[in-house]
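During the reporting period the student researcher (J.K.) took over the structure-prediction task from the postdoctoral fellow and processed the backlog of single-chain submissions. One of the processed entries is reproduced below for the supervisory committee.
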Amino acid sequence: MAGTGEAFETLERTLAGYARHANFGAVLMIGLGCEQVQIEGLLARYGLAPGARLRTLSIQDAGGTAEAIDRGVAIVSDFVDLLRNDRRSDCPVSDLVLGLQCGGSDGWSGITANPALGAAADFLIAAGATVLLSETPEIYGAEHLLLARAASPAVANALDERIAWWERYASRNGVSLDNNPSPGNKAGGLTTIFEKSLGAISKAGTGPLNDVILYGAPCRHRGLVFMDSPGYDPCSATGQIASGANLLAFTTGRGSAFGALPTPCLKIASNARLAAAMANDMDIDCSPILDGMSVAEAGELIYRMLVATASGQETKSERLGLGDFEFVPWDMGAWL
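J.K. obtained the following structure tokens:
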């Protein structure tokens, strides 16, 4: 891609976010040596410096593929020796940064799983944590609900600017921004982006919107933050992780087999059929809401499981070993 501009800055911002992410014990950044994104320049621009837990490697400088692999293995061996001395310590809930995701939504998502996750988000925010809502095309048509919760005119203007950017982006690529629902969404009972957006926003709870940030940008405020991203789950989650999300919660009504290393991902089913059919993928079943459980009660269950996950309890996707291939930076620019 071009070595300057919006797309280049987005890619570098994403890589820098992963390099500083709290869930990594150590990071090895590998480059060919002559690409547009030069590791040394990236680190300098984002205030990162090589050290014991951040090492770099150039394939060309190493002398080729085999030599780079040997050198990389040696570096990772050093990391292993270093990490043997790491120990768990208690941290407050306020250290959590939760990325909110939904995929394969159905007609029940906006009634059960998404509002329940919103209640859990409120519990986290009350404890001082940060919650990231994303997927700008999936709030389209219902963004007024977030604008009404903006903590300041500047925050409202920032969200308006992102919506306007997406309208221009869709137009110049010859697509319609209100054509987001997939065949699976429609088979599950969703017919328009507006129905889908109303449900998607309910994941964000009821608190004020404290900030709007670009894809992969570091969080500047606690509480509810909107991070701009596409509606494609792996791409959106990659940006949230780059922004510091150390935990993900993913609601689904049709089913999803999503994992996102290095960040544990809790999967939340909107209906009993899905929870039974994909029992090895779903961590929580929110269908009891349809039988009388309150949204607040379901939200407290999700909150408690999020805290347990942050404390080391494995999610279903972790037990399945999912997530190695879900690093999907947003490719928005021209290729030259």
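The committee noted the following: The chain has a mean pLDDT of 94.
J.K. will present the remaining backlog at the next meeting.
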